[in-house]
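Write out the 3D structure for:
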Amino acid sequence: MSPPLAVEIEELLSWLAVEKGRSPNTLAAYRRDLAAYQEFLRGRALTPADVTEPVVEDYLAFLRAAGRAPASVARALVSVRSLHRFMEDEGQVATNPAGDVQRPKVPAGLPKALSEAEVGTLLAAVHGDDAVARRDRAILEVLYGCGLRVSELVGLSLADLDLGAGLLRAFGKGSKERVVPVGRLACEALGDWLRPGGRDAMVPERWARRGDAEAVFLNTRGGRLSRQGAWGVVRRYGDAVGLGERLSPHVLRHSCATHMLDHGADIRVVQELLGHASISTTQVYTRVSATRLRRIYEAAHPRAKRRVPE
């Protein structure tokens, strides 16, 4: 059994939940990172109040030596820095020992968007008109058509849908609410799922948990579909059409953004659609589109191909 977290850590987590409105997933990530940090400190007989800047540097070196990826090390530093900044703000320590520690450089990875043809093949892979097929078709259409995060998808409730207006309400990171347009094909798929013989076929005689009755997407046992369940749906059809490890719910979100920019959408519209707090997060998709544009240009223009050395 893991030892209890230090009081300072629990106070930070409570503050992040109550004052900052951080999502359960974000809080779980902070808890994991800070539990690992606490274990490291205990190995050196230190408490969070004893930490100095060299200790934080040693911790990052320890993570790198353990094979942690740069992005994982950077995230750990964010958690550690947040803890010590909170302690400083609360007057528990004089300074933040992690405040000046340099953030590890994280390689800028480009989202691995599918081609439009690959998305079409994936969406066409759902066959049948039974309840499961209707649900799965709606899941894939909404993930790609609306660019939702998987947590936003499974968090949808019936009151969040206005198919007549072609809109839905999504709750993103930090429970931030936004209104998202729903395209024609996604609306049709949702309508089919909500018609008799669809969602109602999965409704149980008695709801097991509060809130399940309002869930848009249900599992075959009649409960609200989980993130893992939605992942399984996406992966099953991805395997069926040969996309395998390339496909995830987030790849469909990447593909939605990339294809919109390919077709001339304004980047701030895409930012609003995806619920990005910063435009810099959305700008990564412009690099994807520029890369694809260059590849198409070089393949199509007779004077664009680079000379191959003899």
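Strands lie at 161-162, 167-171, 177-181.
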